């Protein structure tokens, strides 16, 4: 049985984002293969993909290492998101399917219900799912992929303060979905631009290694889920 490299890539990326591997630390094929319960072949392929995405760098005499983005590179991530998320929403207004709308509306209903109870980790997860679904609704695989990479890198590089008013934040989500449902590209773009600008103000750059493991690591060790590949 050969585990797809993209599954290994997802597992390594998630652990980098979660802070399990500190920026600048080495990523050896042997140790990664043992950790995720796979051979070195998918690990090698995964590291190449992660290098192309900017999560990994290859250094002379050290091999693969977790990247160490500069403050300017981190700031660029937020600026790119402020430009691309409104574009994605505008495209979604033109290209969304009924399935996308159903999922988005369901997330908004649940998010607004939870927001009335106050800030919570559930709200943060729901917000992530909302923006991921909105990106998928844009009908552009390249834009969807780019937005996904941006979200991962921003979570990796930044701590996010809870919004002052979760209810207001989810009201903006609802307004975005209304515009998308009506096919109003310009309104979807404008509301998303305002929402993204407000969200960006809540981001605080994480010092390298500061608080990563305590705040974000979900588990100390796991293997790639191979149940889907056993048939």
Strand content: 5-15%
Uncertain regions spanning at least 5 consecutive residues = 211-223, 225-231
By secondary-structure content and strand pairing, the structural class works out as mainly alpha
Number of alpha- plus pi-helical segments? 10
Shape: globular
Largest sheet, order of strands side by side?
1-2
**What's the helix-strand series?**
HHHEEHHHHEHHEH
- Beta strand count: 4
Organism: Streptomyces gibsoniae
Domain HTH gntR-type: 2-69
Protein name: GntR family transcriptional regulator
Region (Disordered): 205-231
What does this structure look like?
The structure is a single chain. The protein is mainly α and 231 residues long. It is built from ten helices and four strands. Helix 4 (71-95) crosses helix 8 (166-182).
């Amino acid at each position: 049985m050969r585990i797809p490299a993209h599954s290994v890539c997802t597992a390594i990326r998630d652990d980098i984002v979660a802070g399990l591997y500190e920026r600048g630390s080495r990523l050896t094929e042997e140790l990664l293969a043992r950790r995720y319960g796979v051979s070195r072949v998918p690990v090698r392929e995964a590291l190449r993909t992660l290098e192309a995405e900017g999560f990994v760098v290859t250094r002379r005499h050290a091999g693969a290492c977790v990247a160490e983005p500069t403050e300017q590179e981190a700031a660029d991530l937020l600026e790119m998101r402020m430009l691309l998320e409104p574009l994605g929403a505008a495209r979604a207004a033109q290209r969304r399917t009924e399935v996308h709308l159903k999922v988005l509306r369901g997330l908004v209903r649940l998010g607004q219900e939870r927001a009335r109870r106050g800030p919570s980790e559930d709200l943060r997860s729901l917000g992530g799912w909302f923006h991921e679904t909105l990106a998928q609704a844009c009908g552009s695989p390249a834009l969807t992929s780019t937005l996904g990479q941006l979200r991962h890198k921003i979570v990796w590089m930044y701590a996010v303060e809870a919004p002052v008013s979760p209810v207001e934040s989810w009201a903006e989500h609802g307004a975005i979905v209304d515009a998308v449902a009506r096919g109003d590209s310009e309104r979807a773009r404008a509301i998303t631009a305002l929402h993204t600008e407000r969200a960006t103000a809540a981001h605080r750059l994480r010092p390298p290694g500061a608080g990563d493991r305590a705040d974000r690591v979900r588990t100390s060790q796991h293997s790639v889920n191979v149940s889907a590949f056993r048939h």
